[in-house]
Amino acid sequence: MVVGRGRHNGGVNQTDVAVAELDTSVGRLRVAVTAAGLAEVGWVDTAREAPAPPSADPSRTEPILEQLRAYFRGEREQFDIALDWRSMSETRRTVLQALFTSVGFGESITYGGLADRSGTGVPARAIGGIMGSNPIPIVVPCHRVLSHDGLGGYSGGTGADALEVKRWLLTMEGVLPPTLDFSPDGIAGGRSQQYVGDLPEQ
Is residue 26 part of a domain? Predict the structure, then answer.
C-alpha cells in the first residue's frame, strides 16, 4: 500500500495526525499517528515523492518508529503501542483485531483459518479483501495470512514488489526458509530508490 501525505482514512480527524517516515529493509515507510494511536502505515514511493518534513510531534511518532527499527533489526517480535481503529467498520476491525492478537511472530494462518478465528462469519475470499485494505500493515500483520496453497496476495510495497515484501517478512520471521537470494539487509532495491526532485522546505 502506497500512502500519500495527508491521506488518511475516514473517521480520523486529519488535524490530529502526526506523520513521520522511516527507511527500512522493505522500503521507506510512512506512519500516521493520532492522539488515539497508530492509524496508518504505508509505503512511500521514493522514486516519485520527496521525504516528508520531520514530525511536528515526535512524542507521538518516535515510539512506533523505534519499535519498527527494533523489529527490522530482529530485536522485537511484538508491537505494544496503542492503535487507532476508528476508521474501520465493526467487521473489518474485528477481523484485524483477531489477527493482531492471535497470530504472532513466526506464525501464519490461512484466510479461511482467520475467518473462523474471527467469529464474524466472513468468508475466506472476503478476508482477503480485508487484508488488502488493512491500514496498519506490518504492525497488524496481514503478511502472515496465506492462501491454502501459497502465499496469497499482499498490498504492501510500492506496487510490483508486493509479494517480494511479503516473502521477505515471512522469511525474516522464520515462517519461510530463506532462498539463495534472500538478504537479511532487505529486498533488492528496498533502500536504493532515490527521489528525483526538490526536497520540501524544512
Answer: no
Q: Residue 141 falls within a domain, yes or no?
A: yes
| Partners of 23 in beta bridges | 28
> Which residues are identified as catalytic?
142
CATH number at residue 122: 1.10.10.10
pTM across the whole model: 0.85
The pLDDT of residue 14 is 59
- Is 68 inside a domain boundary? no
* Arithmetic mean of pLDDT over the chain: 86
Distance CA 158, CA 3 (A): 9
Task: Give the helix ranges, DSSP H, for 89-178.
Answer: 90-102, 111-118, 124-132, 162-172
Measured CA to CA, the distance from residue 180 to residue 65 in angstroms comes to: 30
What percentage of the chain exceeds 90 in pLDDT? Answer: 73
Environment class of 6 (CB within 10 Å of its CB; exposed 0-12, middle 13-18, buried 19+): exposed
Max Cα separation, the chain? Answer: 49
